[in-house]
């Protein structure tokens, strides 16, 4: 998992300018910083900065939380709020406290500004706000830093590639040989074959982010979808899986792209739907792009897992209890959910999922984060039944669904 940092955007009132940082202290709590600006040497990363708080009151000041946002230099774009983060700082009357911070400037945010051509002169703003209590009084101080990138993004550690369907960041140091560059080019060509097949399977393009964001970094075992992170979703792809290509990526990448499509529009779906549907539609996209063999092999694995789920009498498919089971149990559950997707298509028609998504998007439907999985499942059953006119409840009952439990 990637690390998040910090604060909610707010208007800066009666600000005092010292160096390039804009400081917003209060009568009882003063604030200054060191250095006067944050220097970012790479395309995202950690930058140290110190906040110096001075208690000018006769009461003990106790900090509670902090929040942060990034803002383009022209003020036209603001990132999602990063935080709140608990902040345990106590400053006694008349005393000064140095808060040594390590500020994360996320790659995703830098890239978002870069892609909008909003990194004017390689600069942006970082605003952090600290909430505190001074006796019974609540207060807030904030600092707006200048973030400066002395090196242009094109000369930093990433290869930046834009295609009709993707924006791709790849760490340069991983692709230094002709063979590795050639394999990267082949992978990008492959992704372009998959994208229209995923669009066909889902029947839509993500409304917020028309182009998928791919990050190719480090060496790990598998690709994975991340989102939303700092307001932006992306697919993380280990560089070794491109430098040393395997057939498995022909199904693994479509699955993560399916996650990107699904979660971008329908976050908080029950786990059985999110995992079963994305695996099922990824298989269709993989086969549609011409990779039938690996698609069939993957389908056989899911079918085996689903059969094992039934044989072993598992009962967690439509619950919120997936996390209490081990990896083997989870694989069985995903296999069972995959089988359910195939049965839904047989009952309701091969276009049932594109119809379902179209209806949900038309209605602005979203899953409530706090709603239990069993209640979300009831909504899905009702929607499928209304669209298809078929007895969907009976099918789900065969797969272990029990209303109200």
Specify Rg, calculated over alpha carbons: 25 Å
**Count of beta strands:** 16
Mean pLDDT: 88
Shape: globular
Unreliable spans: 1-19
Q: Termini distance?
A: 33 Å
Oligomer: single chain
Q: What characterizes the major β-sheet?
A: 8 strands, mixed
| Topology pattern, helix = H, strand = E | EEEEEEEEEHEEEEHEEEHHHHHHHH
How much strand content do the residues show? 25-35%
Helix count, DSSP H or I runs of 4 or more residues: 10
Pairing-aware structural class of the strands and helices?
Answer: alpha+beta
Tell me roughly what share of residues is in helical segments. Answer: 25-40%
Strand-helix topology:
Layout: E1 16-18, E2 21-24, E3 29-34, E4 38-39, E5 45-55, E6 61-72, E7 82-86, E8 90-91, E9 96-105, H1 107-115, E10 123-134, E11 137-148, E12 158-162, E13 166-171, H2 178-202, E14 212-217, E15 224-229, E16 232-238, H3 240-243, H4 249-265, H5 271-288, H6 292-311, H7 327-348, H8 352-363, H9 373-388, H10 392-398
